[in-house]
Amino acid sequence: EVQLAQSGGGLVSPGGSLRLSCVASGFAVDTYSINWVRQAPGKGLEWVASISSSSTYKYYAESVKGRFIISRDNAKKSFYLQMNGLRVEDTAVYYCARDECSEGTCYSDYWGQGALVTVSS
Amino acid sequence: DIQLTQSPSFLSASVRDRVTITCRASHDISGYLAWYQQEPGKAPKLLIYAGSILQSGVSSRFSGSGSGTEFSLTISSLQPGDFATYYCQQFKNYPYTFGQGTKVEIK
After folding, report:
1. pLDDT given for residue A102 in this prediction
2. Partner residue opposite B91 with nearest CB, options A46, A105, A114
């Protein structure tokens, strides 16, 4: 069974740092890209970052570029989102999601349970 | 960036109603579109990918259509578990943008 188990959320002061983790099971992680998506309280979904299967390609939303770093360790079946310079507006539930590609397109077919990040003084 | 505009933003309907949600893209995204359902406090659930392909295990009451810039999600007969928020997402280009969401509530 494919599963993505998240950890690392919490309360942090503005300007602080936090690292989110996502541990995979049930599939060969080294063949899939991974996305991070967030959802601010009462708001819609926002794509944050993506990393290719071998870490060759990394993409970021403009809102987090230069502050967040996406990474992965395929040997540990783990994916990470290092968040630095956190702002109040980064407060959200953060999801990791597996990026499947077939039928000539891609889509996020499995999601973690989410991790709440609260940025507040 | 590719903008996705969903309509309506809010929909009130009854059990067994047929409902349709539209997603319009600011640029041609071919069939690079997915639909998700999200219940409060839960992670999104994939319903449709490639614009019209039903994800394994998802009820056949859900269907998707469209290509290019116009897409739609139809629920043929609303059931109590379908009252949720629905999002479209494009995978044509980074950033992988989402529509703003459509909340389906019980009339």
Report:
1. 80
2. A105
